[in-house]
Every structure is written in C-alpha cells, then in structure tokens.
C-alpha cells in the first residue's frame, strides 16, 4: 500500500482516539445529569426539570387499573413538560409500562432515564407504531442533545412496523445501556453529529422484506461511536448492525451473533468513509434463508479498518469487501465460514489498496466448510498479504491472480 494511503489510515486511527475522548466526556456528563436533578458549577447549581411518569399517573402492568392508551397520553404529557432548549429528565421507574397508539415524541435536550436495562420497560402494544420518535426541526440549537439510559423499549409482539426507537437529524445523542426488542429495526438513527451508543442490546428484529432491516441502523451519521454493544437473534433478513453513508465511525467491542439470514455487520454507500472496527465479532450469522450471508459485508465504501476482529461460523464469507478502496485488516480472523454454502475467510472483490497483516484464515473442522482462506476476484488490485496464516481450508489457502497482490512471509498448509 503506498505511503500516502497508509498515512491516511494511520490518521484515521488517531481520529478514532480523539472521538473516544469526546464521547467519554459526553457519557460522564450524562451520568452527572442522571445522578441528581441539578447541575452547574461552583455554588450556583441550576435546577433541572425531573418528571417521574408515575407521579403524573402512569401505571405499570402490575396495576389492575392500567390502561395502555391512558399510559401513552400521560407519558406524552410528561414529555411535553420538558422545557424546549434546556435539559430535562423523564424518569421511568422500575416496572413495565404498556402504551398503545402513536409513538412517544420526545424533544431534544431530554434524557429518558430508567432504573436499569430490562427493569424499566416501555412496551408498545400496537405493533403498527414505534415506541419513541425523536425528530425536532427548527434551528440547529434546537437539534442538539438527546439521551436514553437504563431502559428496555420493545413491541409486545414479534415483528412490528418500523423501528422501536427512531431518531432523526439529532446531534449529540447518547444511548447508554438500552435494550431494543422486536420491531423491524431496534434503533434507527439518521443524520446527526457526535453521537454515542454504549452498552446496548438489540434482539428479535424481523425484516420481513424491509430493506436494511437491522438491530442497529445508522445512516448519514458523522463522528459516531458504538461500543460494548450486541445485536443478536435477528430474523427474516435482518442484519445485526448497518451503516449507510456514515463518516468517521469508531465501532469497538461490538458483537453480532445469530443473524439468521442477514449479515452480522453491513456497511454500504459510496459516501461511507472512515469506519474503524476494533475487536468486533460476527459469529453464526447468515445461517438460514435462501441466500447465505457474511459476517462483515462491506460494499462501495472506502477507508475501512479492521483491528483484531473475528468472523466465525458464518453462512458465506467471514469478510466480504466489494467495490471499494483502502481497506486494512490487522490481526483479524476469518474462521470456519461457508457453513451454508461456498464461503471464504476473506473475500476481496473489485477493490483496490487492501492490506492484510497478521491475519488468520482457517478451518479447524474435520470436514472443512471454508472454501479458500483469502481470495481476490474481479478487478481487485494493489493488495498486500503479509505475516498471515491460512490453513485447513477446503480448497485452497491464499488465491490472488498474478499482479493483483504482493503475498509474502505467510504460513499456509
């Protein structure tokens, strides 16, 4: 890989470190807001509106007088009490609070706070509607700041229309320890700057023919951080996590498992640039359905980095990279893939400027399922494979056409 391009990817890693510092500060600020209903500096704290939904009449499902439609109206009224343009906390105490009807519309600068994930639950009984929707128009200052923390949001039944939570064009979004259950999408975010998803879970999403259905879906997001998050048990074509036309994203310790007929991670869009995966795992993905899917499916993107990632036991390829440029794999594994058809550990198609260093592509099964460890096809060019291992694959170990790649100091057999 030419020095200029290598330098760009190193600069990308430095940018990731900067974003982590920024997002860490944001989470600390959020934690401070949840700890007490005032904030400020010195001896002049500022009161923060703090509304508990039970104080204004919402009832959990354990209350025989609970009515989902009434709960929805009460919680919406409480959310509307948050003053526009300043911070406020909408508190969801321990319990499950069914609602029915249109989604709860939450304005910016509001933190929706529960006691703990799976303990404070808002459940939408009408699968025709989402649970929460945040989309505030107006001037830029009205679109900054929104948070969800220590909650579970879900549909009462499998499937359901749209997303569990939809956030549009909002900057400085912090989603911290939230579970999204059922729906076509768990968390659906479009647009926005400087947002963070931390310690979250999305499960049981079902696409049912809906394009890009995913546990977590991000589109046109800039400076995004996702860490310590899991997407699991996705059904009917749903992927674990999807990134479309996103710029400068740091994805760290994120796991996609058991996405039955969809890829674990999907990155798409010619505007996608600067995505870094650190210690991410795609395991048992794309194992059902008419067409097997990949652990990592990366198409039409550029400047994507994989550090210490793992793709294991996926339906087709561990990593599928197509129609893009400037990819770097370091210390990553593609093992035992091709479980539901022909698949490779690393499959590079019509792409250029690709580096694989210290990677491992192998199949440890007594009857190997992974066809080729590392392969390039189409107009792939300017590939380097160094210090890597490819062993035990069914057909071949490292396969690139002459002139396509520089292959050196590897272990095969």
Describe the protein.
There is one protein chain. By secondary structure, the chain is mostly beta strands. The protein is built from two helices and 37 strands. It has helices spanning 3-35, 68-80; strands at residues 38-39, 46-47, 50-52, 88-92, 95-99, 104-105, 110-114, 120-124, 132-134, 144-155, 163-168, 171-181, 185-190, 193-198, 201-203, 214-219, 222-234, 239-244, 247-259, 265-268, 273-278, 281-283, 296-299, 302-307, 310-312, 319-322, 325-330, 333-335, 346-349, 352-357, 360-362, 372-377, 381-386, 389-391, 396-399, 405-408, 411-412. The strands form three sheets. It has a 23-stranded parallel β-sheet that branches. A twelve-stranded parallel β-sheet has the order 6-9-11-13-16-18-20-23-26-29-32-35. A hairpin with a 6-residue loop joins strand 1 (38-39) and strand 2. The longest helix has 33 residues, at 3-35. The radius of gyration is 23 Å and the shape is elongated. The model is unreliable at 13-28 and 30-45 (pLDDT under 50).
């Amino acid at each position: 890989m030419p020095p200029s391009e290598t330098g760009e990817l190193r600069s990308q890693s430095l940018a990731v470190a900067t974003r982590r510092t920024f997002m860490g500060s944001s989470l600390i600020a959020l934690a401070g807001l949840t700890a007490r209903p005032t904030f400020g500096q010195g001896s002049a704290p500022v009161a923060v509106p703090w509304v508990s939904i039970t104080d204004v009449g919402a009832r959990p499902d354990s209350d025989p007088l609970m009515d989902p439609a009434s709960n929805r109206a009460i919680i919406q009224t409480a959310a509307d009490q948050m003053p526009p343009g300043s911070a406020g906390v909408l508190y969801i105490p321990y319990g499950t609070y069914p609602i029915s009807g249109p989604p709860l519309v939450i304005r910016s600068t509001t933190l929706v706070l529960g006691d703990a994930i799976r303990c404070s639950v808002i459940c939408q009984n009408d699968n025709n509607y989402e649970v929460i929707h945040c989309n505030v128009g107006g001037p830029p200052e009205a679109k900054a700041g929104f948070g969800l923390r220590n909650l579970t949001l879900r549909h009462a039944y499998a499937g359901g229309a749209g997303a569990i939570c939809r956030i549009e064009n909002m900057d400085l979004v912090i989603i911290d320890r939230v579970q999204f259950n059922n729906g076509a999408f768990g968390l659906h975010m479009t647009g926005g700057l400087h947002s963070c998803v931390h310690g979250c879970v999305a499960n049981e999403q079902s696409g049912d023919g809906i394009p890009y259905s995913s546990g977590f879906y991000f589109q046109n997001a800039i400076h995004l951080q996702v860490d310590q998050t899991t997407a699991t048990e996705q059904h009917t074509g749903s992927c674990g996590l999807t990134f479309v036309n996103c710029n400068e994203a740091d994805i760290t310790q994120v796991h996609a498992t058991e996405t039955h007929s969809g890829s674990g991670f999907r990155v798409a869009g010619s505007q996608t640039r600067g995505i870094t995966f650190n210690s991410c795992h795609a395991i048992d993905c794309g194992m059902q359905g008419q067409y097997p899917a990949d652990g990592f499916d990366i198409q039409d993107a550029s400047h994507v980095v994989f550090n210490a990632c793992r793709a294991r036991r996926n339906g087709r390829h561990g990593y599928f990279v197509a129609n893009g440029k400037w990819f770097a794999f370091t210390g990553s594994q593609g093992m035992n893939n091709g479980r539901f058809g022909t698949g490779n550990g690393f499959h590079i198609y019509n792409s250029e400027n690709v580096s694989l260093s210290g990677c491992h592509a192998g199949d440890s099964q007594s009857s190997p399922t992974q066809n080729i460890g590392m392969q390039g096809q189409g107009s792939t060019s300017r590939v380097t494979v160094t210090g890597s291992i490819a062993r035990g694959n069914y057909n071949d170990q490292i396969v690139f056409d002459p002139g396509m790649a520089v292959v050196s100091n590897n272990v095969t057999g």
